[in-house]
Amino acid sequence: MRCSKIKLISPYIDGELSGEEKDILELHMNECRECAQELEDLRKIRELFTGAETFKAPYGFSTRVAIARALANNAKLILADEPAASLDTGRGTRVMELLKRIAKENRSAVIVVTHDVRMIEGFDHVYGLKDGRIMEEKRNSIQT
After folding, report:
1. How far apart are the C-alpha atoms of 73 and 13, rounded to whole Å?
2. Can you tell me whether residue 141 is helix, strand or coil?
3. Could you give the CA distance from residue 100 to residue 38 in angstroms, rounded to a whole number?
4. 54, 58, 13, 57: which is closest to 36 by C-alpha?
5. DSSP secondary-structure letter at 18?
6. Mean of per-residue pLDDT scores for the chain
7. Dihedral (CA of 115, 111, 14, 5) sign
8. What residue ranges in the chain does DSSP mark as E strands?
9. Within 13 Å of residue 2, how many CA atoms lie on the same side as its CB?
10. Which residue segments constitute the domains of the chain, with CATH numbers given?
11. Pairing state of beta strands 77-81 and 109-113?
């Protein structure tokens, strides 16, 4: 099981914690090897991107990076607009399976917008829209 304070490492690096929260986390990291390692890893990753030139990544790559960020940050809400649009069916299906797994494992909400009905199988709630109105709702049994 991951340390519950690990989610504070990124806000710590970004200077988003109060002085008291920062002090408490620093004391904790002296004792928690997992959090100390996470801090070191995040600092290394940020160093890599600090001096990097920007480039226009292919959409499929951007999708995978966005999913990786959601996993790394234990996101509680993920909004995905056509996450499988530029992917072949196999890769698109794997992306959707990964989003469902993230939702289940992190107890996250995942809201996906798609025109590809092949990609909606297995989601707990599916809403069909027509002209901006909800036309149908499908609920699958929710497993916890």
Report:
1. 13
2. coil
3. 25
4. 13
5. -
6. 82
7. negative
8. 77-81, 109-113, 125-130, 133-139
9. 16
10. 4-50 (no CATH), 59-139 (3.40.50.300)
11. parallel
d(CA 21, CA 78): 26
72 is written with which tokens?
Answer: 């790394």
**What residue type is 1 in one-letter code?**
M
In this structure, what token pair is assigned to residue 135?
Answer: 């036309």
The token pair at 141 is 């049994």
Tokens of 94: 């794997």
| Model pLDDT for residues 83-141, shown as the tens digit of each residue | 888 778 888 888 888 888 888 888 888 888 888 887 888 788 888 888 888 887 777 65
Q: Which residue has the tokens 């001096």?
A: 51
CB 35 within 8 A of CB 3: yes
90's tokens? 């196999």
Q: Give the model's pLDDT for residue 144.
A: 42
How many C-beta atoms surround the C-beta of residue 96 within 10 A?
Answer: 24
Structure tokens at 105: 């494992």
